[in-house]
C-alpha cells in the first residue's frame, strides 16, 4: 500500500510540473484557480480509465456496487488536488 501511495503522490508532483509547463510562468507569477481545476478534472481520466480497470473495478468504477459514489468522490478528491495546486502556486507567487 505504501508503494501505491508514494506512486500516487509522485504522479501528482509530475502533474503539478505539467501544469506549470502548460500554463506557463505567467500563471505561476499570478495564479488563478481555473487552470488548476481543469488539470484536476482531466487527471480523473487516469484513474477512471487506467487505474480502476487495472484493479478490477471496471471503467470509471463501473463494476463497483456504488459507481456513482466512487465517481463523485474522485471528482471531490481531484478538486481538493486542484485547490492544493492553486494554494501552492499562490505561496510560490508571494515568495517570488
Can you tell me about this structure?
By secondary structure, this protein is an all-alpha fold. The protein has one domain (2-95). It is 81% helix and 0% strand. It has helices spanning 2-23, 25-29, 33-54, 67-95. α3 crosses α4.
What's the gist of this structure?
The chain is 81% helix and 0% strand. The protein is an all-alpha fold.
* Average of the residue pLDDT scores: 96
Figure out the total of helices. 4
Q: Give the biggest sheet.
A: none
Helix content: over 70%
Compute the number of structural domains. 1
Low-confidence stretches: none
Structural class designation: mainly alpha
**Global outline:** elongated
- DSSP, total strands: 0
User: How far apart are the termini?
Assistant: 37 Å
H/E element string? HHHH
Radius of gyration: 15 Å
β content, as a range? under 5%
Give the topology, please:
Elements lengths: L1 H22 L1 H5 L3 H22 L12 H29 L1
Helix pairs in contact: 3-4
Give a quick set of tags describing it.
elongated; mainly alpha
Amino acid at each position: 500500500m505504501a508503494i501505491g501511495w508514494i506512486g500516487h503522490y509522485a504522479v501528482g508532483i509530475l502533474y503539478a510540473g505539467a501544469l506549470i509547463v502548460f500554463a506557463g510562468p505567467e500563471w505561476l507569477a499570478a495564479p488563478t484557480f481555473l487552470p488548476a481545476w481543469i488539470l484536476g478534472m482531466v487527471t480523473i481520466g487516469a484513474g477512471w480509465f487506467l487505474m480502476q480497470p487495472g484493479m478490477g473495478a471496471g471503467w470509471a468504477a463501473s463494476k463497483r456496487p456504488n459507481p456513482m459514489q466512487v465517481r463523485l468522490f474522485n471528482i471531490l478528491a481531484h478538486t481538493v488536488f486542484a485547490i492544493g495546486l492553486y494554494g501552492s502556486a499562490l505561496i510560490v507567487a508571494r515568495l517570488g
